[in-house]
Design brief:
Layout: E1 4-14, H1 17-28, E2 38-39, E3 50-55, E4 68-74, H2 77-86, E5 90-91, E6 96-98, E7 101-107, E8 113-119
Parallel strand pairs: 1-3, 4-8
Antiparallel strand pairs: 1-4, 2-3, 5-7, 6-7, 7-8
Domain VOC: 6-119
Keywords: Dioxygenase, Oxidoreductase
Protein name: Glyoxalase/Bleomycin resistance protein/Dioxygenase family protein
Length: 126
């Protein structure tokens, strides 16, 4: 059975993502990574934890109108999503793959879209 391996990131909608990134850079001293979002230093947790801001009109969080979305790192995306589906959980049939990993989504009982991320083997410490 697959298991969670940590928090993959926090995703927030913003009226002006560029301005919000600048505010966090200015007031908290964190710098955006090469991929455009904040990436925090590694700890004993496997992989990076990411903070990213999305435009308010993004469809990425699904149709619920939620303002934030959790992203959890996992070690076996397909196994976990199959298990959730078998348990009657609303699992989005869409999957996305990138050089840094695979993504899938489910909806929790409160109607929140939640993202699962299986980092690729090339992802540091994945």
């Amino acid at each position: 059975m697959g298991k969670l391996t940590g928090l993959g990131g926090a995703f927030l909608k913003a009226k002006d993502p560029k301005a919000l990134y600048a505010w966090y850079e200015q007031h908290l001293g964190i710098q955006r990574a090469e991929h455009g979002s904040f990436s925090f230093p590694k700890s004993e947790v496997t992989g990076d934890t990411v903070l990213a801001f999305f435009p308010e009109e993004t469809p990425y969080f699904g149709p619920s109108g939620q303002r934030t979305m959790l992203n959890f790192r996992v070690d076996d995306l397909d196994t976990i999503l199959s298990s959730l589906l078998a348990s009657g959980v609303n699992v989005d049939p869409e999957r996305q793959s990138y050089d840094f990993g695979k993504f899938g989504w489910f909806t929790d009982p409160e109607g929140n879209r939640v993202e699962l991320w299986e980092p690729s083997a090339a992802e540091p410490d994945a």
